[in-house]
TrEMBL record:
Record-annotated Alcohol dehydrogenase iron-type/glycerol dehydrogenase GldA domain positions: 9-189
The name this protein goes by in its record: NADH-dependent alcohol dehydrogenase
GO MF term list: alcohol dehydrogenase (NADP+) activity; butanol dehydrogenase (NAD+) activity; metal ion binding; methylglyoxal reductase (NADPH) (acetol producing) activity
Organism placement in taxonomy: Bacteria, Pseudomonadati, Bacteroidota, Bacteroidia, Bacteroidales
UniProt-listed PANTHER family: ALCOHOL DEHYDROGENASE YQHD
Amino acid sequence: MDNFVYYAPTKFVFGRYTEKRIGELAKEFGGTRALVVYGGGSAVRSGAVGRAVRSLHAAGFDTFNLEGIQPNPADDRVREGIELVRMHDIDIIIAVGGGSVIDTAKAIALGALYDGDFWDFYCGKATPERALPVGVVLTIPAAGSEGSGNSVITLREVRNEDGEVVSGPVKLSLRTESVLRPKFAIMNPELTLTLPAWQTACGIVDMMAHIFERYFSNTPDCEVTDRVAEGLLKAIVCEGRRVMESPDDYQARANIMWAATLAHNGICGTGRREDWSSHFIEHEISAVYPDVAHGAGLAAVIPAWMEYVAAKNPGKVAQFAERVMDVVPAPGSVPVDIALEGIARLRSFFLNIGMPSDFAGLGVIDPDIPALVEALHMHKGESIGNYVPLTARDTKAIYMALM
Ligand code: NZQ
Ligand code: ZN
């Protein structure tokens, strides 16, 4: 196990009716003016935005709105949010929604206190040191942004110093240890009862992916972190099946909601080197094809990635197969056989919950694979990942496996 620092200072308030407490929680950070950020309508229809705003008003806040944040959020709405913050002297940002809304709120919180362009943080030109406080009312268990220090934003057009467009969209993830962790996250599983099956399934895949990216590591002797990850994965498979069969089951929704947070708040990565290549491979797809939901993209990429790396380094994949997918090794079988059986079971779990397994299933006809590979390595370096480091030849083979 490697040395580590683990600091996750978000306060989680979990359970029924908890969104009514948002005013009281926001008040702890001083200030009187809140920017409420939300998506394309689900949080208005469910009443979550209305209840949050009423609670903020009751606690003495004036509120301002930034609505209509789209999935795979882009820079233009962040810039609009930063202007609103400056214009109205906002003290706190409240995100009511999922990863796209929360990540937009985080980018606004960071950019509003910075003299330059907020994108400087995402492309590595500036280091995040301070941000306005962000509070969350979570409506979809998936991205885990409510408990992570990360934010993922797409820059629609990359321009040179003369303002000319030099390349298409780029989706980059900014990781911070604590600057971008929400101060508090309200998690009422009832708010997730309106999720369509597709979005529920996308969330299940994404939370599993967040564990895989940390679990597939060559750092030895992380038994505790391994067992936490395996326990969570087993619970997600079990509760995932339950929630897909009984979408109105509050307890299944509650378990899935808490699992998504624990999958991505860093606990599953403690003491070891992480991987993240499946996410990098997927982000290129949903940057260029923004109608691809992040979780759906991962459902296609992950089994293909696992098969590719299992051929070179089967050990941990075989461990996953035995401990999570309940593969019982046949006498005389070698790790790669066990690994492949585990991957087959994972793929069939994804298919059973309605997830796609290739580009066609993602609605991407005739993808430009050389362009995806080029952009991936331009953004993330010549070699990506750690469990098996992947160069352009390898990532091309993984994209090709989705044809
Ligand atoms: O826009 P509305 O109408 O709200 O609809 C949303 C949206 O269409 C809908 N939805 C959310 N809650 C709902 C609901 N529909 C009915 N009932 C509800 N209760 O779900 C759709 C997807 O929302 P989105 O916020 O995009 O989903 P998700 O949480 O999966 O976030 C995806 C984004 O997060 C990034 C992804 O790349 C993607 O951009 N990620 C962020 C991470 C982080 N910050 O740590 C890590 C992840 O790996 C991920 O990359
Ligand atoms: Zn993800």
